[in-house]
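Annex B. Sample input.
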Amino acid sequence: MVDWSSQAEILVDATAFMKLMHSLAGLYFWDFASSLDFEWAFITRKKKFTWPLIFYFAGRYCLFFALIGILIALDTTSEVNCQALYTFNQLAGDAAVGLASINLSIRTMAIWSQSRWIVGPLVIVILGHWALILQGVLLKAEWVPGSGCAITHTNNTILAATFIYSMCFDALIFTLSAWKLAFKRAGTRSQLMKMLFKDGLIYFLVAFGANLLATIFMLLNWNSIMSVIFNVPAAVASTIVASRAVRRLNKFTTNGPEMLTTSATHSGLAFRTGQHPTISRNIGVPMQKDLSGGVHVQMQTFTVAEEEDQHSDWTQDGESRKKVEDPEICDAEISADFKRPPY
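Annex B, continued. Sample output.
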């Protein structure tokens, strides 16, 4: 049986830890560099910046600088302030995990049309998450001649609680999103809804699995290295998947007209301004009407006015008047990664 507390085993684990950190840093730096065109589009004002992207950029750069700090701590040969360095690394790394959850919780709030019964509890859960994150930075580290920086004390109970909280938080976010998106009639689902559900499921599975692995090793607490060896992989996995989900939504475009029949109270993502976008007049939308002689396909037209929130649609025979909600308009309102809230 392996003696995890022996010096020989700790040395082997430390070597594996160093190689893993360098590999993860390379992976994240590659993902970071390959998506810089997204930032550049906002710098050059090709895309309009919206407030939910604050959490996206904060999460990306927190993990970016945390990984740089970890590499400095592992590779430096001259004495540095280990306490300050490790405190920063811990705070930035845990913040990246928290911000990844916030990115997905914002989508959930928007999917539920900013309902106070959803936004209020989620905000409370977010505050509780960050209370644990801030307590997790209370560690001690010092410089050891000949070895470099070493952590002398950490609270594994708080760290484990943080990751367990993250798993429960992610499960809550996914459940709320799935309830709104998945359990609808098949005819009411647009391409955007399907993408949101798919991205949310992928994020949940990846983040939950990574956080679960990190929590198991922290609770086992074999030694000081093995107890934290999967913390950074959990942060990297959560941040990469959450960031990709944000970028996919921001770049979302539909592939053509869809039939999305919803009630007047339903909306997709509700972070938007009070005004509707101006749409070119007389856009044809195919409609089907059941008649005794078979199914007749008619083309209905509608007009979107800037002053009024009305769609005026008439059948060709003038028998009835009905409103049509075009999914292209619905998707156009939300594909820019949430518009500004109405408050």
